[in-house]
Amino acid sequence: MTDTQQANGAAPDLTKAKSTGRHAAEPTIGQLVSEASTHLSTIIQGEIALAKLELKSSVKNAGTGAGAFIGAAILLVFSLTFLFIAVAETLAHFWVERYIAFFITFGFFVLLAGLLAFIGIKKVKRVKAPQRTISTSKDTVAYLKANARRSS
Hints:
By secondary structure, this protein is mostly helical.
């Protein structure tokens, strides 16, 4: 209150007393909510980035394995054509040497399909769940639940 106000008998200005009574370092509720929102957004963005990184490798292995399985299936279907031709030639020309060529071709495609299936199995077995992302997400949820209980 100024000397003039005291002399006039005016009431002291309480708004100034309220604003100066608050500690300068104490944040407001709005600032706390804004800061919490910013931190939560940063955590979520970090979780998403981690999930993308972990899943990229797994998706690549799954795609390669699926491609190898598809290749094996296609080759097996085409090799069946040669089996059927070989059987037909064998029946038409019993014990003629021409059928041997058809069986050799069939055997080659079956071996190639087996190799692709083997590669596909190995690649698919490398596919894993994103363990770090799951772990950190569980930790984040637990932390948020614990802090929600404290603030309630």
